[in-house]
Amino acid sequence: MRIMRLLPRPASCIRVCLFAFSALMLTLCTAHPAMLYAQDAPESREPVRIEDAQGNTITFEVGEAAFADSVTSFTPGDPMSAQDATQGTLALGLPNYERGQGISTAITLGCGGVLQVQFTDNVLVDGPGPDLHIFEVGPDVEPTFVAVSTDGQAWQDVGQIEGGTASVDIAAVADSDDVFRFVQLTDDGEDCSGSYPGADIDAVGAINASEVVELAGALLFDVDSSALRPAAQTALRDIATTLQERGVTSVTIVGHTDAQGDATYNQTLSLERARSVRTYLVDTLGVADMDVAVRGAGESEPAASNDTAEGRRQNRRVEFIF
């Protein structure tokens, strides 16, 4: 596997995914509650070009951060591979397959097997050309169905990889402001012979990805309120400084709630909160040199389970996507 690191893009174009849960601390975003296993988050954000097993070269502008970070579900097919199911982690991070070494670096799905992975330090978005690349081991890509999701529950089919094609365009299911954190790969169940039946997945990479900075809702707002708390000012000032220093020209502010109460009310509240943040950034802090859009997601894009108090706390948040 050849990996070539490129010179960094201008700051306004670098896209990674970091989440801030307080005015004083930036942490990597919390993984989905169903996460089975994960790897440490990659550090390099420099663009890389990687050659896949079929000889195609793909550029990932966010570097190592472009690749899936955790496995949320793995259902081995029948017959299943000789590998242990916990080896789903082989599909995480940078691809590391080398020709002639067999498939020891990839996870074999088994006949009809299903693998679900999550991005925790970037989000998949629709952009120019293909948006997602699946690194499948072998001279030809084994037929595999691909789906994406915003919440890890509702899936949208985006096509199939096979033969010499391992890249997918998600334009058919993505609006301009949609972000996807989950990818599902399903072996087609046709080639079930040998010790390693089904697709052999080495890595899952987001070609088009966006950076997301997140602030906890409790830091910004009181319960059932869209009025900014005094403590929010420092956090938003830090956000404004970050956006300006990096030369960001456009940002979308997205409000989120938990699933408690009426969905329509939550949708309205999330939008009002996003608008309050925009007003403060533009009118008070003078962030007028960039396009600032707002969106209310309500309870539709949870970052964690709404079944626990901690999960609901994580879901009450405001995101800055750029």
From TrEMBL:
The keyword Signal applies. Residues 208-322 form the OmpA-like domain. Residues 1-33 form the signal peptide. It holds the Pfam family OmpA. It comes from the Bacteria. It is found in: Cell outer membrane. One of its GO terms (cellular component) is cell outer membrane. Keywords: Cell outer membrane, Membrane, Signal. The keyword Lipid metabolism does not apply. This is OmpA-like domain-containing protein. It comes from Longimonas halophila.
